[in-house]
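Chain and conformation:
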Amino acid sequence: MLTRRARAAIDESTLRAAVAAVEDPEIRRSIAELGMLRSVSTDRKGTAHIEVALTTPACPLRDRLRADVTASAAAVDGVTGVEVTFTTLSEHDRLALAQRLRRAQPGPLDSGTLVYAVASGKGGVGKSSVAANLAVALARQGKRVGLLDADVWGYSVPQLFGVRRSPVAVKGLMLPIEAYGVRLMSVGFLVGDGEPVVWRGPMLHKALEQFLSDVHWGELDVLLLDLPPGTGDVTLSLLELVPRAALLAVTTPQPTAQTVASRVGRMARDMGMPVAGIVENMSTVVCGDCGTPSALFGTGGGRRLADELGTELLSGIPLDPALRQACDDGVPVVAGAPQTPSALALSALATRLPAVRRSLAGVALPLSVVG
């Protein structure tokens, strides 16, 4: 409870308006609009009593919501203390909320959201770390960003972001988990830690459909899809489900990785998907002692792939100790060590992407991204 000397009589309409404007940290809309604000009252001592109904009894952001409500109420003139109590939305209210959220905003595939399918031909080239850090870099530049971990069998977004909890579901509508300013969804949030996913094709296709249509992504400027390596069922399903996407192919300098990645690029082209460009990951390896870069994995793979697919080599991302440590620690390097060579290269890639997308024929950009 906050305590301070009363300054003036409390205007309860002002108090209610202040609290009503507080946003739910997961849905990003005001608690009044969501029907979560139940009661606001004061007593003779100047204490504000506020009741809020949570979407679920086990709401993972309860403490953050309590802090936000407390801060808003405490700022009202005359309030000397704040007591916040929680209840839970009824089943009827949860159903109404889910219906309201589905009606309120278009999905990322029905709006002006830019969609990038981050792909590679083979595993081990660092595709997921590129997707994760690119998402955080875009968010740090002011974009509203979502990241869908579609690498169902080899999901790594939970590890890369240090997230180990399940998403909240409201009557069949899942709320993405937010970390480092990015809205996340991964099958790894829905299974036990380390549990393998043994789904077949039809189940995979249905799961991907639900991740796109039954997740409340909200308004997004950019949605990144972290595809599994290769040209299998998941990749084919996603390319069919998101025809507005542009491919961002990740390779290493090695001819083996470049050759296999070219198959994904050709498949995208055959399906009418534009190729936004190529990212050459591990372009150099930076010595942890002296900082000297070396071409441990060879040179030229990214350039050869770009020439083969008729697109641009957008960036060469060095492998440095900070990037490796960041992946292990669950802290994206662009957030945890933003001045390291890898982080600077990833941030520069994020800056370059909108201009690249503008150059693709037939793609209309929302003003929030163009600007």
